[in-house]
Each structure stands twice: as structure tokens, then as C-alpha cells.
Amino acid sequence: MKKAFVFLSALMLLLAAVFAALLFLPKTNPQTYRIKIENGQGIAAVGNRLAKDDIIYSRHVLVGAAYMLGVHNRLQSGSYKLPQKVSAWQILQKLKKAESDTVTVQIIEGMRFAQMRRIINQTADLKHDTAGWSDEKLLKEIDPEAEYTRAEGLFAPDSYELDAGSSDLQLYKLAYRTMQKNLNQAWEERQSGLPYKTPYELLTMASIIEKETAHENDRRHVAAVFVNRLNIGMRLQTDPTVIYGMGDAYNGRIRKADLRRDTPYNTYTRNGLTPTPIALPGKAALEAAAHPSSEKYLYFVSRMDDTGLSQFSHTLDEHNAAVRQYILKRK
């Protein structure tokens, strides 16, 4: 009996020693490693990934220690940078502190540039080097050779991840380069016969499409409506441009007086495209502007239902019938 007790005690000490070694002994890896934890992700999934990538000695040890520390159900989403030489214990301590090494900034399609600046200025863990700069100074710093005078539309909406403590200027430069890449690609691949003289005009059209619809099935038809109108000299007559021209005066509704009040962005009173984009368009809107559908639509109206789709028409009579059906709810 005594021998069995001694044996079990020795075995437990050995297992404890092995557990401790696998937990505290650093493992040297070829390079630094970054692990991204999504919302709701548990320690088991994290342990599996670290073990699969050969970053830790044992996922069982990592998971067991996480339960003992109470870290298993308190993982904070984020991106964590691990050094080349790191132990499972050090990883758990990093996760426990929930100190992500990166900052994620989400810029949504259809935002105005002013909204983008507000989000960046309010993002903690970035150095706000440009907070007091004008848009003009920011553009010159990003691209001294650019001929743009307004920043609207020139920055790609996307999810950007930077190292904590990075300058906000780095984010602006990345978003600007991304938009230039997306725009140049759309311009090079555009279909023939479009009424755009420059890539900037395509960008402007994409911003209007972005504000008119977020529905994948409608984008190319909306683009066709505006392209067809430009081709026959018809005014675009689109509310989002009027709203942009109203600036801070817009309070959530457009009155008839607003549609009649002339501004450079009122496409009810002025021909052609607006002088600048009116929002930050995504890749899908750029592609729609570069590849409108072949339909000869001239009008569209929201169906005002759960689908989010619009009803497109070739003639004014068709359009008026659609307005009666979907807006006035009369057959």
C-alpha cells in the first residue's frame, strides 16, 4: 500500500513537472507570430490554431491552464503579436490582460470623408498627428503631386488594421492608395462608350451609386439609369446629391424648396455629374459605374418592401405607374 502511494505521488509529481515545463518553458519559433481572435472565439479554438502552427508545445496544457486562470471565457477579440521565443504561460498572460497589439478601424461604404476623419480622431491607441490639419493639408501630405482639391471620395472604405501607436497619417495613406488602386483598376477595365472623361468622373458616379443603393442586384441598373440620362442630356435628379449640397442644413428630410434651391450639387437644377464625389464608394460601386447594365432604364423608385430592391422603368409612364404602386400604394 505504501509503495503504491509513493508510486502515485511520484507519478503526480512527474506529471506536474511535465505540465509546468510545457506551460512555462519558452518555445523558440522561426519568427514572430500574430494571432487574431474573433468575437466569441473560445480558448479551445485558439489552442488548436497555436498547436497546429507549432507555436506551443501542447494545446491541452494551454487550455487546462486557461481554465485554471479563468481566462477561457474572457478572451478579448483583437490581434496579438507573440515574440519568437514565448511560453504558453506568457501567451495566457497576454490574453488575460486583453492588450491587443493592433488597432482596427472600420470605414463603411457610403460614409462621407468628414465622418471618416471623425472616426479616426476618436480611435484610441492611434497617434492623432493630423487631427488639427485641414483636408487640403492632409491631401498634400499624402500625395504632393495630386491635382485633387477636395478629399471627398478619395479614400477606400474598408477595415484597416494597424499596430497600436501608429500615426493616423499611416491609415490615411493606406486608404488613399487602396482607393487609387481600386479606381485605376475600374478605369482600365471599364466598358466602352461611357460618358466619363476621367477616372475622377467615374469615382464621382460610383459615389452617387453608393448612396442610392446598397443592394447588389440593383447597382448596375442604377448605374445604367444615370449613364443613360447623361448620354441623352437628361439631369440626374438624384436626392443624395441634393442632401450633400445642403451640408449641415439637412435635418433628415428634403422639401420641394430644397430641390429648387441651386447648389453645385443639386442635380435637379444642374446638368451632368456633381463637381466632386459625395461619399466614399466601395469596390462594388466602382465596378457598377464601370460596368452598368445594358438596360435602357431612365427611372427607378424604391419598392418600399423588405427586399430593399428598386423598380426600374424605361419611360415616364412606367415610372409613374410604379410610383402609384409602390409609393402611393394604389394599383
From TrEMBL:
<comment type="similarity">
    <text>Belongs to the transglycosylase MltG family.</text>
</comment>
<keyword id="KW-0472">Membrane</keyword>
<keyword id="KW-0961">Cell wall biogenesis/degradation</keyword>
<feature type="site" description="Important for catalytic activity">
    <location>
        <position position="212"/>
    </location>
</feature>
<comment type="function">
    <text>Functions as a peptidoglycan terminase that cleaves nascent peptidoglycan strands endolytically to terminate their elongation.</text>
</comment>
<keyword id="KW-0997">Cell inner membrane</keyword>
<keyword id="KW-1003">Cell membrane</keyword>
<dbReference type="Pfam" id="PF02618">
    <property type="entry name" value="YceG"/>
</dbReference>
<protein>
    <recommendedName>
        <fullName>Endolytic murein transglycosylase</fullName>
        <ecNumber>4.2.2.29</ecNumber>
    </recommendedName>
</protein>
<dbReference type="GO" id="GO:0071555">
    <property type="term" value="P:cell wall organization"/>
</dbReference>
<dbReference type="GO" id="GO:0009252">
    <property type="term" value="P:peptidoglycan biosynthetic process"/>
</dbReference>
<keyword id="KW-1133">Transmembrane helix</keyword>
<dbReference type="GO" id="GO:0008932">
    <property type="term" value="F:lytic endotransglycosylase activity"/>
</dbReference>
<dbReference type="InterPro" id="IPR003770">
    <property type="entry name" value="MLTG-like"/>
</dbReference>
<keyword id="KW-0812">Transmembrane</keyword>
<dbReference type="GO" id="GO:0005886">
    <property type="term" value="C:plasma membrane"/>
</dbReference>
<keyword id="KW-0456">Lyase</keyword>
